[in-house]
Write a structure and sequence with these properties.
Length: about 160
Amino acid sequence: RQQAEYSTSSSGDEFESKPSAIDKAKRTLRRRKKLEKETKQLIKQEELKRLHKAQAVQRQLEELEERQRALEIFGVELERKLRGESDSSTKDETQMLHEWFELVLEKNKLMRYESQLLIIAQELELEDHQSRLEQKLREKMAIDDSLKDEMDLNEEDEI
């Protein structure tokens, strides 16, 4: 009888330990899914930030282009006046030369700003490319190595 109770209690202990191991595995799986979900949300937020920044850069480039066109038109008129091709001689030559130099300085300033905006745009493009590669690598690494063929392993190494 004591042996029967002992075997019953020991088999009961085994039964009790199995659900706790299953529960632990379920909790681990839930945590992993929650972490993956949070990671995906963060990635999406970063993509949106980059998109908004890229749109702002694009708008600034368009505005810059308009300002450069206006300066170009004004510069052409000013150069004609300086050469004496235009009839209007309301301003003296030194005043016109001063305006022309200011125009050149403004144009150079706009060109530097355009270069900075283009660098920012390229940076955003590279960050986006890196994010996509990281996501692709995560997906490849989530697959068990035993299920991967040679091509999959090579692609993972390349990424």
